[in-house]
Amino acid sequence: MKKWEENVRRVIPYTPGEQPKGKKLIKLNTNENPYPPSPGVAEVLQRFSADNLRLYPDPEAGELVHALAEHYGLSDDQVFAGVGSDDVLALSFLTFFNAQEEILFPDITYSFYDVWASLYRIPYRTPALDDRFLIRPEDYLQKNGGIIFPNPNAPTGAVLPLADIRRILDANRDVVVIVDEAYIDFGGTSALPLIDEYDNLLVVQTFSKSRALAGLRIGYAFGNPTLIKYLQDVKYSFNSYTMNSITIQAGAAAVRDHAYYEETCRKIKETREWTKKELSRLGFSFPDSSANFIFASHREVPAQQLFTALRDAGILVRYFNRPRIDDHLRITIGTPEEMRAMIRFLEDYLSASR
Ligand code: PMP
Questions:
Q1: 180: Cβ below 6 Å to ligand 1?
Q2: Residue 319 bridge partners (DSSP)
Q3: What CATH number has the domain bearing residue 322?
Q4: Is 214 in the pocket of ligand 1 (CB under 6 A)?
Q5: Which of 79, 101, 200, 291 would bridge 157 by S-S if both were Cys, CB 3.0 to 4.6 A apart?
Q6: Alpha carbon distance 306, 352 (integer Å)
Q7: Which of 15, 85, 203 to mutate to test the pocket of ligand 1 (most atoms within 8 A of CB)?
Q8: In angstroms, what is the span from residue 182 Cα to ligand 1's centroid?
Q9: What's the CA gap between 1 and 5, in Å, rounded?
Q10: Residue 192, ligand 1, Cβ within 6 A
Q11: Which residues does residue 354 pair with via DSSP β-bridges, in sequence order?
Q12: Cα–Cα separations (whole angstroms), residue 314 to 39, 134, 317, 344
């Protein structure tokens, strides 16, 4: 190692799911939405004049923040917007997890959390999910420097009832608790109504899943105005103009068209319930999913083998080669046609391997 390398901040980065180029695949590996975004988004893109790009965007993303506040019945100062929820979460780690004590998140969860903790040198502890892959609220009643978990959890899809979230919040009034609700529009109850009661609760959501805008990069957080102000202060100390003008306008249009996204979520939930029945019939088991994916394990055939067979058949799902979850596939819910094709393939493959 060269001398200068000793002082490099070296990190083991997060590994995102594959985005294969050019191949015609059934893509069920990164929890994207199989339907297009709201038509209002396309209209904004068509109307947008390139001349507007001479100017810096609004650093507060005011139009988007206001549209979100209106939709969720909040005031603008309770809303923070960022470049995908990854941006909002990364800033939240930097802002709120600054204690000597360890922060807590589940051992099986969104695999970016330990990356941010390592990047910022935040000590952390990871209480184990129970053997049905559920969060044990009692694990979060011990002393800590902050708490974060997704609800529904990823990659399990399992939901924590609001009563358990309340129990965790009641025991943790002195640290910031972040609930990452990337998948909440597909099931479970949002913790959003609790932000008035708990000034240390931050609820984070995204446009990448239910609003079908993963490519636009929008995430947002809800919380007490003081919490939001702390987040803004860190953002403005890092990069003020994170969201571009096109994104701000297109995102606001997507929020205003809530009937469209509710219909999209309804269709995905319907397809998910059909897929659950079919996977059970084929010998898979999984935690009951409230998200737009299913975390399934087959009673006979190893997940890695199925992952490869599916891939060879042009069907891409997610496989994590990690302890405790290396016999599971995370399957995103696509269109009914895509799910029928996957089930048909699995049915043939499983009967041939008997
Ligand atoms: N939280 C969870 C639990 C996720 O699974 C994801 C998607 N990878 C994100 C946050 C980040 O999504 P985005 O940055 O697209 O909003």
A1: yes
A2: 329
A3: 3.90.1150.10
A4: yes
A5: 291
A6: 13
A7: 85
A8: 6
A9: 6
A10: no
A11: none
A12: 29, 32, 10, 13
pTM, full prediction: 0.98
Domain hosting residue 342, numbered range: 3-36+259-353
Contact 248, 48 (CB under 8 A): no
Same-domain pairing of 293 and 232: no
Ligand 1 neighbour 106 (Cβ under 6 A)? no
Return per-residue pLDDT of the chain as tens, 354 residues: 999 999 999 999 998 888 988 778 999 999 999 999 999 999 999 999 999 999 999 999 999 999 999 999 999 999 999 999 999 999 999 999 999 999 999 999 999 999 999 999 999 999 999 999 999 999 999 999 999 999 999 999 999 999 999 999 999 999 999 999 999 999 999 999 999 999 999 999 999 999 999 999 999 999 999 999 999 999 999 999 999 999 999 999 999 999 999 999 999 999 999 999 999 999 999 999 999 999 999 999 999 999 999 999 999 999 999 999 999 999 999 999 999 999 999 999 999 987
**d(CA 110, ligand 1 centre) in Å:** 8
- SS3 of the chain: helix, strand, coil, percent, to 5: 40, 10, 45
What is the number of structural domains in the chain?
2
